[in-house]
Amino acid sequence: MHIRLVLGGLVTLALAACETTGTPPTVTGTTTTSSPETSTASLEQRLSGTVLRLQSTDGDSAPMVMQLNEDGSSATSMGGFTLTGQWQVEGTTLCQTDIRLAGMPSDDQTPQCVEVSVSGDSVTLVGRSDDGNPETFRGTIEEL
């Protein structure tokens, strides 16, 4: 049985479509800066095996926890719901695919993506909300 995931703020970030613009980041140690020479692998390496603890900058939604496992699997929890899936990085974009709630796949199999920037232990994710406006979440990045 396929389901459409409509979970308020969780949908706006974890399942939000995102425009890919800008210059890819360079990850140096734990700092990410803008540079055209950056490889996708460096940001992917920085995010792999971490937990992102995030809060919407407009305060509209519950805190979110996104676990990005080294094997490419992910778990995103918010408001008592947990979505699982697969994650990957392309440039400065973090995408989740094969998104499931309680093991049931979404009927929208489009990759859901957000722009990512990391500076030290701080992380910012920007995606598009259901109304098409930007939605920003900020928080911390921690090793698993």
TrEMBL record:
Signal peptide boundaries: 1-16
In this chain, the stretch annotated as Disordered covers 21-48
Q: Which UniProt keywords apply?
A: Signal
Q: What is this protein called?
A: Lipocalin-like domain-containing protein
Q: Which organism is it from?
A: Histidinibacterium aquaticum
Please note every region of biased composition (Low complexity): 21-40
Q: Which domain of life is it from?
A: Bacteria
